Inverse folding.
């Protein structure tokens, strides 16, 4: 091209083309010639581009001009949300330009990428949770933590994460200082060390005479500084020291004033308690409802109930509500209005449900109502930009932790089936979400009736710092009638007896009729030789029972029926054995056939011929259905839709059918009132029974709902039935627990603490709600502490507090060992009538007592004891209970007589006797002595003489003899009696206990050597010390209750944090490392999967094997057939087990109680073979033959496996492993096919 250029140029210049270059531009030939002939003009020779010095022009006036900084705050207007009226102004902080989702929790931060708007990112900061005080500069400046810093010794010299730091030691040797400092000039010079030392103004020496330019002068100056520093320290010490006046000789006989007693802790000033839960009265109609809301955001074709109107009124006022209503009462109306209200306000609403199936159903229902509705699940994302999003609670938790920008637009968050918070596995998710929700999100809680709605609403309101209005229905809209059915054939099909009527009256006559009917039909051999106790019936006779009851209900027009059976196997068996039952007409059969074929038309040919599909089609054509987790999801949805159409007349279902699904029936039947809860068999809880029985009764169609309990064996006990049917529902209880995912997600945000999450959990609610009272109590105690006068005594100054501490330890040890001794079998045997005891009664610390009788009270045993008294003295039986041994008041009943061995109490100038009732805390020792006594006669005689008419009667002979014998023992053993030895007499062999008894026996002697016992006024001084120490201990107790140390889960948090440090997920400063960030990407078994990723366990395996091995993370069924594994899969399983075992051992070493075997047993490898074959492309019909796990469980496991593969893919991207990332993509594409990932019918 270069060789052709000149010829072309010459050609162009010679030709007379009509369009030539304009004369103002140099032609190309000339430019080329200049370029080749003038190399000095090239840019590389331009010296002006090199670094050069620019002379600075002084401009002092520029120092007077300062650029104005950005305004940190702005004025915002507060308006009424309904009318828009201006209410007030407030100063609000202005967001900084550098605030992003990667470094800020503020709502004012810049939005993130559009593709992260819905799901967020694990690297994002969450938005600041509502109810927590967002940290600001003023809060940091006034925090208590800064005031308590020790600026002399508490500052760090090495920054976090650095191996070395800087030394700020001011006492450097003079030679090093000399080397470090340049030669001083004749100008005024200040020593840098002295300036940084922050001394007084008089230490700033500027006189030239005090400086010398040699090493000697500098050394002399350094010595002078040291001496001045020592003088200042001594002066400060003299200022703070207090000179106490010692007791003079004149005060030896003077009795000091009685010290003021500490006020009881409960005497703190009453703090007006702020109520966060407000009960809404729904007993009276809302007359002005349409006046208050003339333009409803959504209108229904029916009249609203009172509780629905009250809820809507509060929604219009932008207030949070908790609606606890009976099943089928219409709670969904409240959710619908919130969705419509957000559409009107152009905001967004999130509707959460506990299970994925319920999310799909609500998506279909709300889509038909509102249209603009989206769905977010683990594997499905439909219209994420919609103003109403439906999702499971786990998805919302992930969005909150990942800081999704969708949260900005939220106005309402609806929690359906809140009573699911009681679930031990997933209940913690509800608490996490409620705590993490930002302040601008209002909350709607929907739940079945529970007994502690106000308590739960109070917790939510206190956590979010906003009032929650509680609305609860008084009764069911459709009352229920509960029956017992004892029939087993068509001849006995009329044996259905009413047990509880529609007004909740329990009819014992109906129960008795059921018992009589069972007895009348029982055979003679069964009566004489049958098994004792409750018999559960014969499964072979179930067919007759079901045929008879369905026939009876059909004649009474009480179909459709939901038959709750607490076993998937029993559901299938009951449906299969009713082959002769046909409940549909020809038109119904045709409709079922057409609908079923249309629904399964999307399946492939082999999937349409699955045994379960063919079997269910046959059952449905006869009006019978089965609903449990083992049914294929698409078939289960077909059954639900046919049931809603009224084409399924008899549905055998497990408990999950009652979870939030709006599918009422005419009748509900309980196959049994007992279930297996994963541990053992037990009776149904009232809440479980009410949840399932509530499916009976269709609003607008039935006047009452019918609930029938089958009695295939014996009739249950009357008390059991009453408890199940009319018992109180289960309370909402916290299932909060710490997880590694929660800890890592919070540790990566410095402003959020795990302790704050624990404080705001429902489990800590009762402790944290008293913080205001504790603060007021603490202030009062501090005032009292400041007013306390010190004990000025030359004997007590030094040793009295030490003596008190040693005595307290002695008493605590004595109480502990006494509890151990009293519960020992030999001691229980020794505490019989006639045993001599050493007791403390009132002021008498050492007194003999004769045990007369032992009785068991509600909380502790009572000991009727005969004691000696002064003549004509009346015993006031007001003693401390066992609760007096609380740590802060353990010294209340302590007397120095226990230490100084003053001897046993002996009456002076005559004696009397009394029978007193003691508790274990009143017994000092159990002696080896026993005497014979007529205990009943002594007690009866004393009780008789307590009556006024017999008050002056002489004691009986039995009482006199016992009293005289007790007096004789006291007189002959004034120094005390021998107590039962814990080893020789009681036979205690536990090494730890024996050592404690030995330690206790050696604690008494050193107490007598304290100098304070020589003080003439020791008793008064000791009482004052007890009062002072009780105040200090109470202050420590209140501070403890207000601190993080009082949190129940704090020890477990420390242990789990130590596990993360050992495994290098966080460093020593709790900064989240790369492994920790990877673990944040994973939803379950985060530690095991992260370790597998970092150990490259999956890198050299094909995608099908990776998918198979990871199935152990999501498969939950414990018992199934053993898989037939290849050698490579077996090797992979062993590797996974070894990794899990190593993690379990680290947990054990760090203090967690979970056994290593249990941690490894979390991983279930029963579907490894099935998943491997499925990933290799084997049809679903063939893989079901490889295991006894039901089809529905297999489908659900593979669906959850896809979510895990996606998590590992994201982890591989974070680590920077493109090979593993590609393999995860391939594995996901291999399993996502056919019936396993068939789209839900509710989303079509």
């Amino acid at each position: 091209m270069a060789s052709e250029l000149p010829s072309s140029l010459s050609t162009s210049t010679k030709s007379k083309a009509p369009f030539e270059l304009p004369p103002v531009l140099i032609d190309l030939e000339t430019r080329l010639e200049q370029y080749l002939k003038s190399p000095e003009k090239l840019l590389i020779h331009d010296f002006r581009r090199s670094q050069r010095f620019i002379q600075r022009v002084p401009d002092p006036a520029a120092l007077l001009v300062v650029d104005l900084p950005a305004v940190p705050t702005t004025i915002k207007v507060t308006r009424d949300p309904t009318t828009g009226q201006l209410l007030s102004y407030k100063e609000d902080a202005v967001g900084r330009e550098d605030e992003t989702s990667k470094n800020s929790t503020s709502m004012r931060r810049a939005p993130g990428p559009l593709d992260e708007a819905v799901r967020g990112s694990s690297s994002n900061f969450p938005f600041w949770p509502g109810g927590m005080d967002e940290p600001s500069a003023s809060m940091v400046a006034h925090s208590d933590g800064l005031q308590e810093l020790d600026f002399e010794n508490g500052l760090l010299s090495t920054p976090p994460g650095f191996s070395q730091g800087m030394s700020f030691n001011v006492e450097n040797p003079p030679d090093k200082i000399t080397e470090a400092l340049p030669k001083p000039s004749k100008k005024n010079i200040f020593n840098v060390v002295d300036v940084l030392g922050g001394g007084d103004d008089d230490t700033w020496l500027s006189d030239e005479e005090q400086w010398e330019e040699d090493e000697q002068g500098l050394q002399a100056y350094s010595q002078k500084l040291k001496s001045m520093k020592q003088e200042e320290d001594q002066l400060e010490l003299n200022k703070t020291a207090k000179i106490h006046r010692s007791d003079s000789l004149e005060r030896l006989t003077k009795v000091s004033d009685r010290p003021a007693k500490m006020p009881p802790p409960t005497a703190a000033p009453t703090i007006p308690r702020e109520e966060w839960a407000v009960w809404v009265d729904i007993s009276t109609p809302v007359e002005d409802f349409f006046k208050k809301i003339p333009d409803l955001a959504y209108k229904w074709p029916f009249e609203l109930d009172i509780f629905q109107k009250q809820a809507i009124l509060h929604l219009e006022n932008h207030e949070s509500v908790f609606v606890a209503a009976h099943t089928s009462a219409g709670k969904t109306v409240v959710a619908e209005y919130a969705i419509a209200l957000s559409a009107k306000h152009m905001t967004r609403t999130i509707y959460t449900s506990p299970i994925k199936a319920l999310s799909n159903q609500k998506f279909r229902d709300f889509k038909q109502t509102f249209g603009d509705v989206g769905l977010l699940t683990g594997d499905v994302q439909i219209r994420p930009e919609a103003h109403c999003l439906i999702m499971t609670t786990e998805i919302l938790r992930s969005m909150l932790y990942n800081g999704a920008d969708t949260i900005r637009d939220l106005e309402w968050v609806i929690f359906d089936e809140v009573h699911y918070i009681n679930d031990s596995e997933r209940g913690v998710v509800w608490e996490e979400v409620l705590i993490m929700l930002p302040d601008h999100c209002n909350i709607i809680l929907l739940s079945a009736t529970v007994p502690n709605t106000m308590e739960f609403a109070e917790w939510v309101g206190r956590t979010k710092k906003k009032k929650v209005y509680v609305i609860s229905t008084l009764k069911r809209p459709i009352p229920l009638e509960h029956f017992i059915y004892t029939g087993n054939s068509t001849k006995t099909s009329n044996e259905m007896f009413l047990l509880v009527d529609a007004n909740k009256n329990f009819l014992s006559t109906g129960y008795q009729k059921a018992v009589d009917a069972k007895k009348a039909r029982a055979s003679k051999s069964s009566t004489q030789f049958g098994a004792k106790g409750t018999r559960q019936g014969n499964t072979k006779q179930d067919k007759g029972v079901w045929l008879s009851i369905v026939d009876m209900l059909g004649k009474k027009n009480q179909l459709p029926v939901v038959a709750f059976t607490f076993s998937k196997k029993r559901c299938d068996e009951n449906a299969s054995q009713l082959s002769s039952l046909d409940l549909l007409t020809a038109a119904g059969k045709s409709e079922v056939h057409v609908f079923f074929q249309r629904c399964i038309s999307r399946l492939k040919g082999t999937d349409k011929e699955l045994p379960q599909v063919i079997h269910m089609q046959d059952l449905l054509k006869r009006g019978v259905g089965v609903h449990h987790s083992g049914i294929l999801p698409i078939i289960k949805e077909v059954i639900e839709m046919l049931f809603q159409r009224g084409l399924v007349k008899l549905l055998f279902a497990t408990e999950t059918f009652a979870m939030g699904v709006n599918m009422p029936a005419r009748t509900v039947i309980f196959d049994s009132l007992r279930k297996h809860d994963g541990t053992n068999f037990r009776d149904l809880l009232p809440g479980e029974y009410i949840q399932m029985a509530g499916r009976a009764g269709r609003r607008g169609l039935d006047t009452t709902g019918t609930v029938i309990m089958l009695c295939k064996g014996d009739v249950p006990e009357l008390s059991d039935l009453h408890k199940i049917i009319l018992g109180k529902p289960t309370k909402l209880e916290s299932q909060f627990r710490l997880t590694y995912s929660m800890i890592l997600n919070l540790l990566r945000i410095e402003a959020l603490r795990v302790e704050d999450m624990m404080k705001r959990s429902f489990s800590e609610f009762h402790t944290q709600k008293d913080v205001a009272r504790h603060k007021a109590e603490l202030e009062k105690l501090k005032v009292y502490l400041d007013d306390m006068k010190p004990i000025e005594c030359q004997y007590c100054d030094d040793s009295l507090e030490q003596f008190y501490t040693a005595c307290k330890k002695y008493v605590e040890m004595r109480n502990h060992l006494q509890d151990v001794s009293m519960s020992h079998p030999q001691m229980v045997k020794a505490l019989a009538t006639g045993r001599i005891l050493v007791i403390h009664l009132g002021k008498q610390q050492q007194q003999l007592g004769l045990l007369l009788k032992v009785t068991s009270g509600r909380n502790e045993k009572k000991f009727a004891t005969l004691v000696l008294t002064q003549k004509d003295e009346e015993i006031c039986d007001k003693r401390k209970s066992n609760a007096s041994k609380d740590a802060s008041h353990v010294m209340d009943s302590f007397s120095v007589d226990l230490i100084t061995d003053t001897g046993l109490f002996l009456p002076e100038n005559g004696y009397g006797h009394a029978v007193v009732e003691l508790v274990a805390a009143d017994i000092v020792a159990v002696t080896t002595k026993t005497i014979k006594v007529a205990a009943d006669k002594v007690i009866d005689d004393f009780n008789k003489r307590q009556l006024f008419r017999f008050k002056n009667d002489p004691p009986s002979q039995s009482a006199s003899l016992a009293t005289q014998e007790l007096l004789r023992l006291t007189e002959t053993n004034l120094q005390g009696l021998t107590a039962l030895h814990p080893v020789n007499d009681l036979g205690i062999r536990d090494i730890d206990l024996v050592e404690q008894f030995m330690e206790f026996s050696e604690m008494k002697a050193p107490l007598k050597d304290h100098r304070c016992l020589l003080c003439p006024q020791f008793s008064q001084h000791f009482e004052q010390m007890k009062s002072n120490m009780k105040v200090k201990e109470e202050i420590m107790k209140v501070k403890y209750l207000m601190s993080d140390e009082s949190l129940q889960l704090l020890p477990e948090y420390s242990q789990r944090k130590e596990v993360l440090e050992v495994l290098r997920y966080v460093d020593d400063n709790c900064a989240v490392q790369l492994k920790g960030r990877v673990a944040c990407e994973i939803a379950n078994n985060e530690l095991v999967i992260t370790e597998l990723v970092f150990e490259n366990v999956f890198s050299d395996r094909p995608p099908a094997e990776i998918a198979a091995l990871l199935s152990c993370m999501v498969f939950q069924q414990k018992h199934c057939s053993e898989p037939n594994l290849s050698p490579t899969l077996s090797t992979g399983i062993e590797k996974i087990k070894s990794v899990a075992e190593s993690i379990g051992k680290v947990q054990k070493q760090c203090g967690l109680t979970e056994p290593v075997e249990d941690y490894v047993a979390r991983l279930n490898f029963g579907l490894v073979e099935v998943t491997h074959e499925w990933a290799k492309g084997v049809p679903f019909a063939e893989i079901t033959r490889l295991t006894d796990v039901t089809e529905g469980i297999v489908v659900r496991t593979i669906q959850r496996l896809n979510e895990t593969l996606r998590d590992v893919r994201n982890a591989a991207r974070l680590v920077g492993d493109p090979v593993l990332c590609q393999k995860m993509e391939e594995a996901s594409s291999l399993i996502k096919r056919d019936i396993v990932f068939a789209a839900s019918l509710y989303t079509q």
About this structure: The mean pLDDT is 81. Residues 353 and 359 are 6 Å apart (CA to CA).
